Amino acid sequence: MPLMATITISKSNFYHNLNQIALKVGSKEKIAVVLKDNAYGHGLGIIAELASEYGILHAVVRNLAEAREIEGLFESILILGSREYEVNEKFNFAVNSLEEIPKIPRGCRVELKNDTGMHRNGIACEQIGEALELIEKHGLVLSGAFTHYRSADVLSSELFWQQKNFEKVKEKLRSSGFDHIRFHGCNSAAALRACRSDEAIVRAGIGIYGYNELPFPFDDTMLKPVLALYASRVATRVLRKGQRVGYGGDLTAPHDMTIATYDLGYGDGWCRGDSMRPYTTAEGLPILGRVSMDLISLESDKEQVCIMDDAKAAAKHFGTISYEMTTALSPFIKRIVVE
Ligand SMILES: *Cc1c(COP(=O)(O)O)cnc(C)c1O
After folding, report:
1. How far is the CA of 209 from the centre of ligand 1 (A)?
2. Distance from C-alpha of 190 to C-alpha of 91, rounded to nearest angstrom
3. Is 296 helix (H, G, I), strand (E, B) or coil?
4. Cα dist from 180 to 200, 302, 318, whole Å
5. Could you tell me the residue range of the domain that residue 326 belongs to?
6. Catalytic residue from among 137, 168, 241, 247
7. Which residue's alpha carbon is nearest to atom 13 within ligand 1?
8. Residue 281 falls within a domain, yes or no?
9. Domain boundary among 149, 179, 209
10. Which residues line ligand 1 (CB under 6 A)?
11. Residue 7 forms beta bridges with which residues?
């Protein structure tokens, strides 16, 4: 491993997760891998290549630049939030509002995002008829319709209420002549919990990266974290008892100790946190004092230390979610694939 902060991507864990999800949803052909935001921080190119090699046919990204980067690897790419468009057989642009439709060039493939209850973006159930008229008027090609669940990972029946709303929209679209288009609603949590086998694809994000965010009684599918974060040693020193380290001198050495700085900080997307409640690395070393922009201090002299190998555990410490821990990691950190 190079001597600098590095992210390893475990190919075997990634494929384990895809296997588990394929078993749930019926086949690998039904999995659309969600690769938005640099593949949740894992590295867009790397994850796309691995997924394609595994036999995944569909991907979901945030913008056109991401779609172009991985165009050659998939049969279809759904683009969730683009304001730039391109007529391309593989690209399907999500329609997030009625106002957006006249701005999309003729001939573009679009998928209706249907707001079934999350009330973020998407076309309301009552607006479907109007959306279809606008799509027709502006010469767009409707290739699918989908929805997103706000509480698929929560112990409640909200998921089923949204699914019911989506069923009505499907009916409406089918009876308007769109019976050949693809319909999809499930994210990872919904796919693990209550996958609808009649839907064309599931949009699997966090699950493919190794995190099952469902409360235990729902689903005990074991997924394995794909990403591990390493930092490498910059400088070592002996801290005498009573000497203090880092900005503010927040940590006072309780005894003589050998400490070293490592090349990771909040500038790399690592969480700064609270020095009074330090994070403990995957190897059991508490971060000493404050996290700097590019450095942390640890009581260690090793060339390389594993900072995090389970983003869910780290997220728990920082009061956030696994998604944020990995997505925040700078794209400038080197990523390498390991078996
Ligand atoms: C991000 C996203 C997903 C993936 O959700 P996970 O919880 O990571 O599986 C699916 N669908 C849409 C519309 C998304 O924005």
Report:
1. 12
2. 25
3. strand
4. 11, 59, 46
5. 227-338
6. 247
7. 148
8. yes
9. 209
10. 34, 36, 80, 148, 187-189, 203-207
11. 229, 335
What CA–CA distance (Å, rounded) separates 62 from 84? 11
Active-site residue, 209 included: no
Residue to substitute in 61, 95, 114, 148 for testing ligand 1 pocket (most ligand atoms within 8 angstroms of CB): 148
Token representation of residue 186: 């499930």
pLDDT at 195: 79
- Assess whether 204 and 252 both reside in one domain: no
Q: Is 36 a catalytic residue?
A: yes
* Most informative mutation of 116, 121, 187, 327 for ligand 1 (most atoms within 8 A of CB): 187
Q: Is residue 3 part of a domain?
A: no
323-9-190 Cα angle (round to 5): 40
> Counting beta carbons within 10 angstroms of the beta carbon of residue 112, is it exposed (0 to 12), middle (13 to 18) or buried (19 or more)?
buried
pLDDT in tens, 322-332: 999 999 999 99
pLDDT digits (tens, 9 = 90+) for 225-257: 999 999 999 999 999 999 999 999 999 999 999
Question: Would you report the helix, strand and coil content of the chain in percent, each value rounded to 5?
Answer: 30, 25, 45
Instruction: Give the number of other CB atoms < 10 A from CB of residue 337.
Output: 15
Number of structural domains the chain divides into: 2
Which CATH number covers residue 243?
2.40.37.10
Rounded Cα gap, residues 309 and 113, in angstroms: 35
